[in-house]
Amino acid sequence: MVTIRRLHPRVEARIHPAPARTPTKTAPIPARLEARRAASRHPPPAGRSRPRPRGTTVHFDPLTIVIYVVIVALVLYRVVYRQLRGTLLTRKRLLVMPVILMVVGVYTANTAVHNVTTKELLLLGVDILLLAVLGALRSATTTLSAREGTTFVKGTPLTLVLWLTTIGVRVGFSFIGAALGVSTTVSSSTIMLTLGVSIAVQNAFTYQRIQKLGLPLSDQTPTGINSGR
Question: pTM of the predicted model, to two decimals?
Answer without folding.
Answer: 0.66
